[in-house]
Amino acid sequence: MADVQNISGNSVGPHRNRPTHTVHPLYVRVTHWTNALIILVMIGSGWQIYNASPLFAFTFPGGITLGGWLAGGLLWHFAAMWLLIANGLIYVALGLVTGRFRRMLLPIRPSDVARDLRAALAGRLRSEDPFRYNSIQKLLYLVVLLTGVVIVTSGLAIWKPVQLRELAALFGGYDGARLVHFFAMAVIVGFLTLHVAMALLAPKRLRAMLRGR
Ligand code: HEM
């Protein structure tokens, strides 16, 4: 009998007693941790830039910003932006080509999300199978990926509002793009807080994202 593959592409045929147990392929781990580092740089330098011309009646404490002053913040933000785009494109392209997105992140059924949310609120959400994400994880990952698209496009619109005026118009002009960019940052910071807390509560899953197995 020929080997068949499970949801992560591991052999589970006649050799199923010695599967490879690869939960996260190398490209996912490399792009994930590269992205985590880049996001921290983008947030810290973004807060530095925000402080030079705040949108709201508050600024971020200098100690959690990056760059020292406006020009320094801008340098970090633009340098990290290119890495964010390149790294994101590699992750998305490989996720689509290998079919991993379809296997791991879809489908997301509202009834499953409601069920998992009820279980989570009751403290009963179990995640024994490392090869599957629960519906809440799937939803959060999809939301953060889409927010990534919004934050990059609104950032480009703020950077080049004249050359990219059609893009800026999509966000209601320069000021609209600034607001969207800010709220997309807030969504990512909110996601990150929840995501890191969940990762620390599930050390086996954290190890799998580090070592693959
Ligand atoms: C620095 C702190 C971070 C830690 C400790 C962390 C940890 C993890 C872990 C353990 C997983 C696997 C979850 C599982 O198997 O149940 C995961 C997956 C994921 N994380 Fe993070 N992460 C971090 C930062 C980020 C950031 C900044 C983003 C994006 C803004 C992100 C987006 C994702 C996505 C989209 C997945 C699913 C990847 C896939 O399966 O294709 N993470 N993370």
What distinguishing features does this structure have?
mainly alpha; binds protoporphyrin IX containing FE; 8 helices; 213 residues
Structure write-up:
The protein is mostly helical and 213 residues long. The chain has helices at residues 26-52, 70-97, 100-105, 110-121, 135-159, 165-170, 173-201, 203-211. It is globular and about 50 Å long. The protein starts with 25 loop residues before the first helix and ends with a helix. Mean pLDDT is 91; it is low at 1-18. The chain binds protoporphyrin IX containing FE. Protoporphyrin IX containing FE is lined by residues 28, 32, 35-36, 39, 104, 130, 133, 137, 141, 144-145, 188, 192, 195-196, 199, 205-206, 208-209. Protoporphyrin IX containing FE (HEM) binds next to helix 1, helix 5, helix 7 and helix 8.
How would you concisely characterize the structure shown here?
It is globular, with a radius of gyration of 20 Å. Helix content is 67%, strand content 0%. The protein is built from eight helices and no strands.
